[in-house]
Amino acid sequence: MKKKVCFFILLLLFGICISGCSGSQGSESNDNNTTEPVMNGTIDEKLDENLYVKADFHMPETELHTWTTELKQFDYDHLQSVFWPGISSDEIQEDEFGYRQYGKAGFGGERGSLIYRANEEVEHMDTLCA
Q1: Domain membership flag for residue 59
Q2: Is residue 9 pLDDT above 80, yes or no?
Q3: I need a labelling partner for 20 at 20 to 30 A (CA). Which of 5, 42, 96, 126 fits?
Q4: Terminal-residue alpha carbon distance, the chain
C-alpha cells in the first residue's frame, strides 16, 4: 500500500514539474496597441580614460511628455523673519552678494539655490525648481 501511495505522489509531482517547466504558447498575445520602436541606435563613447559607455537603445513610438521648470525665487526678507524671528534688520549683517548673517548663523544664495549655515559646523545647500 505504501508503495502505491509513494508511486502515486511521485507521479503527481512529476506531472506538476513537467507542466510547470513547459513554455505556454497560448498566454502570449499580439495586441495592436503595443508600441513599436521607431528609432534604434547604439551609443559607443569613451567618456574618460577608464569610463566607456556602450549601449543599444530603442525609442518607442509614443510621444514623451515634457515639463518646463524655472529656478525658485526666494524672498530673503521672509526667510529672515522665519530664521530669526524678533531680530531687527539692524542686527543682521548683509554682504554685497546678499548673504545675510546673524551671529554665527547665515543664509543666502543665488536664483534657485539656497544655502543655510546654522553655525560653523552645520551647513545645508539646496537647489530648488518651481
Answers
A1: no
A2: no
A3: 5
A4: 77
